[in-house]
Write a structure and sequence with these properties.
alpha+beta; Immunoglobulin-like; five-stranded mixed sheet; four-stranded antiparallel sheet; 2 helices; globular; binds copper (II) ion
């Protein structure tokens, strides 16, 4: 009899132990899912010291010579004039393209972005600059240098079901000359700015969480410094040219040369 009871106890203990194991496995599995959720949800940019980093430099060119369009002006012509150069296709003699954005995508770790102020001026019925970079944590300073009313309608460009959509971030009126409004840069990504009073006015601002972004100069050249070694996807964007991406390997203390040729937008 006693033996039988002992056996039962043992059996109970064993089965109890098994239950415990199953429970523990469930807990571990749940914990795993939870950790995945947390890490998956927060691809926050991590700021670190970069010593002996590498750089990406190169040139953005247009595939063919493209003439810059003239914009017709049909409002406030007394102040704005009747036409305006678009300054969209600003090409050097060897087809280098000014104002292309070079964006290193998905950077998870690197130097801190500057907390700088991005000045967007409404000057002679034209946004200045047309293409620029702002940094999350910094600020926008929007200004009207003109004696006509402008408004700054800034929206984040996103893709939804294959279509481009604009989500308004700031929409501000500037009725008087010399007026300045400052706002924080809180949303990362590509922003399009329009003036609803003057349809020809436009600007493109890329707001970045990290400093690894550049705008090409008058010869189409750019340089992005102090990247941690590794493989990166680099996006090349231009308002009138087809965007492209390239995979670039950055090595310590070295410059990776990247040269791209962009076709005209269809
Ligand atoms: Cu305007």
């Amino acid at each position: 009899m006693t033996e039988g009871v002992d056996k039962n106890k043992k059996l109970l203990r064993i089965s109890g132990g098994n239950n415990g194991e199953v429970k523990m496995k469930k807990v571990l599995a749940l914990a795993g899912i939870f950790i995945l959720l947390i890490t998956g949800a927060s691809f926050a940019y991590e700021v670190t010291d970069v010593k002996g980093g590498g750089s990406i430099k190169g040139k953005v060119k247009a595939a063919t010579k493209i003439s810059d369009p003239e914009l017709r002006i049909d409002k406030d012509v007394d102040f704005c004039g009747k036409t305006q150069k678009a300054n969209m296709y600003m090409l050097s003699a060897d087809l280098g393209v000014k104002n292309a954005l070079v964006i290193v995508e998905g950077v998870q770790k690197g130097k801190a972005a500057p907390k700088s102020e991005f000045l967007l001026d409404n000057n002679k019925c034209y946004f200045e600059p047309v293409v620029g970079i702002a940094y999350v944590g910094g600020s926008y300073a929007m200004k009207n240098s003109d004696s006509v009313l402008h408004n700054t309608n800034m929206g984040l460009m996103t893709m939804y079901k294959g279509k481009e959509r604009k989500k308004v971030i700031y929409n501000l009126a500037f009725p008087t000359k010399g007026m300045v409004i400052k706002k924080p840069v809180e949303v990362a990504g590509m922003h399009e700015v329009k003036c609803d009073a003057h349809p020809w006015m436009r600007a493109y601002i890329y707001a970045s969480e990290h400093p690894y972004v550049a705008v090409t100069d008058a010869n189409g050249n750019f340089e992005i410094k102090d990247l941690l070694p590794g493989k990166y996807t680099v996006k090349f964007w231009h308002e009138g040219l087809q965007e492209t991406t390239q995979t670039v390997e950055v090595k310590a203390n070295a410059a990776a040369d990247v040269n791209v040729t962009l076709n005209k937008k269809k």
